[in-house]
Amino acid sequence: MKTIDPPISVGVLGYRFMGEAHANAMARLPMFFPDAPEVHRDVLVGRDESALAEAATRLGFDRFATDWESVVEDVDVFYNLGPNHLHPEPSIAALESGTPVLCEKPLAPTLDDAERMADAADDAHVQTACAFNYRFVPAIRYAKRLLDAGEVGEIHHVRGRYLQDWLVDPDEPWSWRNDADMAGSGALGDLGSHTIDLARFLVSDQVGGIERVSGHLRTFVGERPVEDDEGTRTVTVDDAYSAQAEFETGAMGTFEASRFATGHKNDHTIEIHGSRGSLRFSLERLNELEVLREDGRGYETVLVTDEDDPYVDRWWPPGHVLGWEHTFVHENFEFLSAVAEGRPFEPDFSAGLAVQRVLNAIVESDGRGEWVSVG
């Protein structure tokens, strides 16, 4: 992989939720990660020219463009933060021009598209990233250390859930996230992809990959009103999913996600149970890891904010907690450093493809009503 000398010029497709999160992360880098490569927020890409101009100024970009095709060859790195159906073509075009790409998750709306993107990455020999930012939570990194050190023994169970409630109201307007053609899936891809990636990151060295799944998908509200319109549009994705999984060693996995879990705003929880102990993490308490050790009588809550904890030496004194936005700072530091130094980054497009295969198998299992092997 080639190295790119700083300043690294970055083009970003998407200026709303994820665009703001990544722009904020790039702005924080020189303050807290002085060893990060210098970054030039070059060009912001979108469709609405007036909204785009305002966002470019607010988020610190020098210019804006309404055509991604004119950007992917001009920048050193391309961030694809658009809706899922816009992940394949701009990302592939950037890779074909030799430009490293960070793409939001899930990698693509369909398995075929994800495979095309992963093939393009293999051919390009440049850095790619699938933006699973929860890998960069200090408590998750701390959990990974414990698991790799064998602290929980032989892993028997992996349990993950991601619960939100923003769609409970049937009058919540229809958006692209409710459309299969644009999103691919609903809670499964939007939320479940995070959980499945975390499970792979944390335990694949001990239990291998997910070999087969049994999935169930459900849509609770079939139509939603169109914002600023008198009509409605059909919801063609799942509002919730659940799945059982079997890992290579025979370890069991249970996964679920819902956008109808009343009272849960952003509750991403993962538990790992082994022969000598257990770990439990919740995103709503992201500075904490609950640890049950072999000789313990109950869970110990570890506040992961000490200087020797992952990434924490860059921020505040012990006990001065971090937040959700810091995960993007860590992710951007790792990815842009890999680009500057000419080394691979993880999770890359192959990791995104591995998750996509599990998502696809869950959908297939729901349709067939039986266990399905992950291809």
Ordered list of secondary-structure elements with their pairings:
Elements: E1 8-13, H1 17-32, E2 39-45, H2 49-59, E3 63-65, E4 77-80, H3 88-96, E5 101-103, H4 111-124, E6 128-130, H5 138-148, E7 155-163, H6 180-183, H7 187-207, E8 210-218, E9 223-225, E10 232-234, E11 240-247, E12 252-258, E13 267-274, E14 278-282, E15 288-292, E16 300-303, H8 324-341, H9 349-368, E17 372-373
Parallel strand pairs: 1-2, 1-4, 2-3, 4-5, 5-6, 7-12
Antiparallel strand pairs: 7-13, 8-11, 8-17, 9-10, 11-12, 13-14, 14-15, 15-16
Helix pairs in contact: 1-8, 3-4, 4-9, 5-7, 7-9
What does this protein look like?
With 375 residues, the chain is an alpha/beta fold. It folds into 2 domains: 8-133, NAD(P)-binding Rossmann-like Domain (Rossmann fold); 138-285 and 287-318 and 349-368, 2-Layer Sandwich (Dihydrodipicolinate Reductase, domain 2), CATH 3.30.360.10. It is built from 9 helices and 17 strands. It has helices at residues 17-32, 49-59, 88-96, 111-124, 138-148, 180-183, 187-207, 324-341, 349-368, and strands spanning 8-13, 39-45, 63-65, 77-80, 101-103, 128-130, 155-163, 210-218, 223-225, 232-234, 240-247, 252-258, 267-274, 278-282, 288-292, 300-303, 372-373. The strands form 3 sheets. It has a 9-stranded mixed β-sheet. A 6-stranded parallel β-sheet has the order 3-2-1-4-5-6, with helices on both faces. A hairpin with a 4-residue loop joins strand 11 (240-247) and strand 12 (252-258). The longest helix is centred in the middle third of the chain and has 21 residues, at 187-207. The radius of gyration is 20 Å and the shape is globular.
